[in-house]
Amino acid sequence: MASYVVGDLQGCLEPLQRGLDALAFDPARDRLWLVGDLVNRGPDSLGTLRFLRALGGAVQAVLGNHDLHLLALLLGGRSPSKKDTLTEILEAEDREGLTAWLRAWPLLHYDPAHDAVMVHAGIPPGFDLPAAQAGAAEVAAALQGPEGPAFLSAMYGNEPRCWAESLDGMPRLRWLVNAFTRMRVLGADGGLDLTFKGPLTALPPGRRPWFDGLHRDFATRRVLFGHWAALDGEGPPAPCLALDTGCVWGGALTFYCLDDGTFHREEACP
Questions:
Q1: I want to staple 217 with a disulfide (CB 3.0 to 4.6 A). Which of 111, 112, 128, 211 is the partner?
Q2: How many CB atoms lie within 10 A of CB 115?
């Protein structure tokens, strides 16, 4: 049995299937972890969801910002943006089943056997593992509960920037969503700066990568994340692992084996 973690798919089904074939992946034996952003911008978001759903219990995913956006289109009354490539899902006959499958995933997954945490963007600054698990659980309860459509409709926005335990209601949930699914860098005050998308070499003055604010609880614990394609897998200190290598932008799809620490890369479709 082997467990593989794969970076942001964003509808790039063919490189995913090519990589799984190269790794001799067997869903009856092996496990596939997904760091989120399964859909959008790429060529086959509908096929990607159908393929992953068919793998059943072999899959463990966390939600990314594009996945939450799709759920907002399906349930929260949002309208697609010009760059979205999600129309096939919105019009699919099996969209209700795909929606339920996607909606059930959390924002954070922790596996004690591998002592590894998987999130889409990062761990909220200063949060230890129990605090991060509790924050992700708050969002999951809102998403999966009866007020899920209202939550999805109201989750958009960049405020509040800074965390406070006293935050309540939608501002609290929005901050948690942004930290888990959109965060890349922090400001001098420790607040979220959600505008920067470039490489570490281009960081503006007074900005630092989110992983510089990690709690000591993660000093030896693997943190697996995606979202930040401009890192191209480089930059975060061990044991953090950046797995978004920009497949949808013409880069590669990266697979990481949790068991032996090896990497496998599949180039994007030409």
A1: 128
A2: 13
Q: Tokens 């960081």 sit at which residue? A: 203
Encode burial over 231-247: b for 16+ CB neighbours within 10 A, e otherwise.
bebeebeebbbbbbbbb
State the residue range of the domain holding 37: 3-267
Instruction: Assess contact for 176 and 162: CB atoms under 8 A.
Output: no
Q: Is the pLDDT at 48 greater than 90, yes or no?
A: yes
How many residues are there in the chain? 270
Mutual angle of helices 169-181 and 65-75, in 10-degree steps: 130
With residues binned 3-state (H G I as helix, E B as strand, rest as coil), the percentages for the chain, rounded to 5, are 35, 15, 45
User: How many structural domains compose the chain?
Assistant: 1
| Residues 14, 199: Cα–Cα separation, whole Å | 27
Q: What is the DSSP string of 219-250?
A: SSSEEEE-S-GGGTT-SSPTTEEE---BGGGT
Q: What is the CATH number of the domain that holds 188?
A: 3.60.21.10
Report field, pTM of the whole predicted structure over 0.90: yes
Tell me the sheet residues that pair with 267.
Answer: 252
Over residues 176-198, mean pLDDT: 97
